[in-house]
Amino acid sequence: MRKKIVAGNWKMNMELAEGLKLAESVDTYFRLKPSRAEVVLCTPFIHLAGVAELLKDGKLCLGAQNCASEPSGAYTGEISPAMIKSTGAGYVIIGHSERRSYYHEDNDILNRKAKLALSNGLKVIFCVGEVLGERESGKHFEVVKNQVENGLFNLTAEEITNVVVAYEPVWAIGTGLTATPEQAQEIHQFIRGLFSEKYGKEIAENLTILYGGSCKPSNAAEIFSMPDVDGGLIGGAALKKDDFIAIVEAIR
Ligand code: PGA
């Protein structure tokens, strides 16, 4: 059985004290009532070390939202995968659509980031997804195929076992619009098929594929019930303890 994961992507929200408080309350909840899914909190860099301390010996995992494409050196303002790992975090999100569009990160740089993160022992949550115009013109399969192939397909089979794919239709991120469960299933199945062709059935069957884009307590159970949807990458709703917990509990 492949792993189910619900990851909260806090984005650029929460000052230090607020973030620690949120992490502590989510952590306390799941210590008392273990979840069926692996729960990952992807916080801003400044929270990582403090949240890692809180989560110690508990059930939750910790991740960053981005990393540098170079291992170390004169790259002012950048944070390397080794630095992230040294805080106690185990995951990093790479290729979020906000990184692709606002910071012009292309498949080539995202591939370098993914490789470097994996070689430093981090698990990668690699995001793909089309914009509205691409969906409307029926290009979403082609766009996602391109992102998957150019972002990930030079990784080894062993490296792929530490990759989670997040399908996030850009038109659904933070907009309140959600893909229908059928739209999510169709493209998740397509993504799994791409991995099956490239890496074989077993690796594809074990690949966790998350849905992201306005996932909330009211729609999570339906989306997560689809056979190729293995959990979610949650933005806005991850900032509210009760909503995030309800989404995690929608995993069956
Ligand atoms: P959203 O964001 O849940 O606020 O739509 C999801 C994401 O960007 O990861």
Q: Note the beta-strand portion.
A: 5-15%
Bound molecules: 2-phosphoglycolic acid
Structural class: alpha/beta
**E-strand count:** 8
> Which overall shape is indicated by the principal axes computed on the Cα atoms?
globular
* Total number of distinct structural domains: 1
Q: Sheet with the most strands?
A: 8 strands, parallel, barrel
Written overview of the protein:
The chain has 252 residues and is of the alpha/beta class. It has one domain: Aldolase class I (TIM Barrel). The chain contains twelve helices and eight strands. The chain has helices at residues 16-32, 48-55, 81-87, 97-102, 107-119, 132-136, 140-152, 157-160, 181-199, 201-206, 217-224, 241-249, and strands at 5-9, 38-42, 61-64, 91-94, 123-128, 163-167, 209-212, 231-234. The chain has an eight-stranded parallel β-barrel, surrounded by seven helices. α11 (217-224) links the parallel β7 (209-212) and β8 (231-234). The model has no long low-confidence stretch (mean pLDDT 97). The structure holds 2-phosphoglycolic acid. The site of 2-phosphoglycolic acid has 13 residues, from β8.
